[in-house]
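Cross-posted from the bioinformatics board.
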Amino acid sequence: MAIADQKVQEFSERLVTAEEIKGRSLWQDASRRFFRNKAAFASLIVLTLVVLFTFVGPYFAVWSNEEIDWSVLGQVPTKGVPSFESGHFFGTDDLGRDLYSRVIQGTQISLLVGIIGAGIAVLVGTFYGAVAGYFGGRIDSAMMRTVDILLAIPYMFILILLLMVFGRSVLMLFVGIGLVSWLGMARIVRGQTLSIKNKEFVEAALVTGVHPFTIIFRHIVPNLLGVVAVYATLLVPEMILTESFISFLGLGVQEPNTSWGALISQGASTIQYGTLWQLLFPLFFFVISLFSFYFIGDGLRDALDPKDR
Amino acid sequence: MKHTLIRTSAYALGVASIALFGLSAQAAMVPAGATLADDQTFTMRVLSEFDAIDPQLSETVDAAGVERDLFEGLFNQDAEGNLVPGVALSYDLSDDKTVYTFHLRPEAMWSDGNPVTAGDFEYAWKRLADPATGSPYQWYVTIMGLKNGDAVTAGDMPLDDLGVKAIDDHTLEVTLEQPTPYFTKTTVNASTFPVPKWVIDEYGDDWTLPEHIVGNGAYILTEHVPNERLVRERNPKYWDDAHTVITKTTSLIINDENIALARWKAGEVDRTEVPTGQFPTLKSEYPDSALSAPRLCTYYYWYNETDTGPEALKDVRVRQALSYAVDRNVITDQILQGGQFPAYTFTPAATAGFTPPSVPFGEMTQAERDEKAKELMAAAGYGADNPLAFDLNYNTSEAHKQIATVIAQMWKTKLGVDATLVNMEGQTYFSELRNGNFDVARSGWCGDYNEASTFLDLVRTDSGQNDGHYSNAEVDALMAEAKTMEDPNANYEKVEQIIAEDMPIIPVYHYATSFMIDPGLAQSWPLGNVEQNWYSKDLYRIAK
Amino acid sequence: MINFVIRRIGIAIPTLLILIAISFFLMHAAPGGPFNSERGVPPEVLANLNAKYGLDQPLIVQLWNYIWDIITKFDFGPSMVFKTRTVNDIIAQGFPVTFTYGTWSFVVAVVVGVSLGVAAAVNHNSWLDYIAVGISIGAQVLPNFVLAPILVLIFTLGLHWLPGGGWNGGHWPYPVMPIIALSTSFMASIARITRSSMLEVLHSNFIRTARAKGLPKNTVIWKHAFKPSLLPVISYLAPAFVGMITGSVVVDVYFSTGGMGQLFVASATSRDYSTMMGITILYGVLTIVFNMLADILYAWIDPKIRL
């Protein structure tokens, strides 16, 4: 019996060290595999180009994002069309403001919102869900009922109170985004954790008395990364569009600044009126960026899948 | 009768003309030679669900539109907004001009067959004033000037002390606090419509459900699916049903104006509003359908003149400069483009019996105004080295955003003023406005009745709607005096001149209503009615 | 399992009470009120209105009365904006609408999404995979507020095939566009989660063992791989289903369906406290119930998970 115990322990220790050794190579391995994935690699390039464009683009702009072209105002469908002559490469919005500059500035904000929102979701949601799922019982119950409450609370009033107490700022926009972004992630991660924690390797680690948080970080989280990566890419567009709602309340992006959400919804509202470019340019950047995020997420999933080595 | 009634010549004329008009202007006036279409139904778009279909409990314009079809008050309006007899045929006025005695139409009938009596009006008006009713329109009693109205609404006096009393079934006596020249005009408002006490007593709040409701209007409610549709059909018991043409009016709730326009184009609705800026294009595409007419509303910006407001805006030169630099023609002709009018006075020119005076800055060209604005700003000590900066608040909406953006750009380019645009969700916005937490903020006002005081009362020191807290003793005195004057216009003109000088607000534009309507119905739409009080019973559809 | 359900219901009650209390205080702390409008009402009129709806009492008393009326009479109070209607009426009218189009959208999203996801995973890196991925990202990146007006322009204005809005008791073909607009992005999300989860399961040791034993591919996929791959999908679906049956603002606004999505936003923006609370409680109950169902499904998918 004692010998058997000892054997199990030795075996587990070896497992642990093996994991550690592999742990280092995991990342190297993953990055090698990621860059071998053509779609993921191409997407990374596209996304980099989009980001570069937002920094280089302004040097070619003829108009700022807030200047009104008074000669266009009132005749946008005819005079606001995209043209190199007028300097409005992407045309103008309904107020005769340059869409090229507005798309560039909106892209910066929205990419930031999408990445930070998804980032908060990944960090907070993964940790929260993994802890709840791993410990189970009362801890799980308390933590997940808290998520239920947070899912059901009328979010709008929290945002309004944030506005009243802290005033408007880009920081508050991220606070607002961060408040909700992680809830769905926490539920998904916790569900996965419930299943993973019963796997042999976790039980083995448990038997050897590895600290619970070490188990969570070393054994559970790596096995969650696939789902987390995919769900994070689903969250990106969601967060980008949530920004519009937060800005509607007055907490987020303020005129004359704009965002993809604002530009796309404005463009969508005028599709009947012959100013289709107002929808297509922002939508184009939104779409290619989301495609890129998707393939990057998918590439990460493939690269990080611990079973796939 | 305890009052000695005499008919003053002026009012006798009024009564006589009302009676004459009533014969011709009351119902749908189909022109001779026009062929009516076989289908006499009318489908219109409304923005959102009705708050209630109860005349004393609702407060929205859309609900009032339905109530004008389902109920009928003392007077209606014709296509030009003139009073025409509704349930009242005529009235007498006491020589101190505080007691009105209305003679009601004996044949008027509720849809359940009961006669419409003076008691129904007394009940309805007391219901409006009763604190227990909880009417959001309770303040209208004060606007009407009913005797003891304030004390009754505050609960300090019993309901029976309100200045309304049924003398007999067909005689209604109304006593006012003081002579109020525009009183009869207030009786076209839906909150003054009679309601059937016996039905309300039986069903409580459910009395307005289609299966219970009883009305005295030209139509009866036949279907109401909240947030989707409301249908009313001809009431055969209505006294003038013989001259009514439209058989059925349907209101469809369509929140999005662009979708509503697409559905209009697809023929699903007969009438819908024109989205901002689209009027010229639609007019050239559908010349017979795109209509626009002035409305009794003004769009303006308040300056915060309280202690919480910025010091700079307490300087009249700054207020003038900012107002002068706003090129109103750009806003009406290049942004709104729906027939709106540049505003230099608070009161719209469309107001009955009042021609706004020409104010000095309204007479200048925009170049002159811009020049003057720069001088004034320099004189006030603001310029490139000391730029003026403040917040410009508006509640979130595409149109408010557009106007604020353009005005802020005008200020920036002409005066170097840095106005930060601040949008807020509506409730937050209004509450910040009331609490004085703003620098410059947008506002809009539509006349409660068609007379200049409905606008100019706002700049009185003690007005509840004076959100900028402008205060000028002379304005207060002029407005107080105007209350009882036979012809108050001279005072109103003086107040407008003072506003143009003190500039407590920046008048931006006077509204127009612009909408698409089926060409067959276009002819009967009362475009000349600046309050846009329309009645289904006056419409008709001409065959194509 | 019965023990589990009883235990969860036991926890649900305090959870709901906390939700009610937090929401109640949040709502009242926000600026504005149901009688605060652009015009504003005089103070004495406001006082009468507040008295009629009990808003003149201390908040804690209001909260107590509110909860008491729910427990004793199942009465969620009168609406403060729709003056002649009660919250019970309003929800009884709006919920069936959203429940109908929400459930249909859910069915469409799950059937199409899971099929696409499984097809893509099983044929990993084949043309079928690329098409499925293409469809699901395409559906994901087109926001429904862009999709909705496009649908109306094509099917109503262009082709005259479908009515541009209205619900009409849910009769065909009124729910078609709402269901398309609501299901699209959920379908895309479900497809992507299913695909990634399925891939993971297909690469796991036990499936490799099964394949190595020479079991036919289809048997392996449907008997062994399918069920475990549903786990993250279930986690996603529980809140998604609640979201769908409680309505979508975009669907209600663009298609005039008269459902709860628009009602929820309208009552929040107009500070219709009672309607807002009613919808919040409904939403809370559904969230708790469906997350409980998700937990039960976890145990079905993976018997090692203890309830």
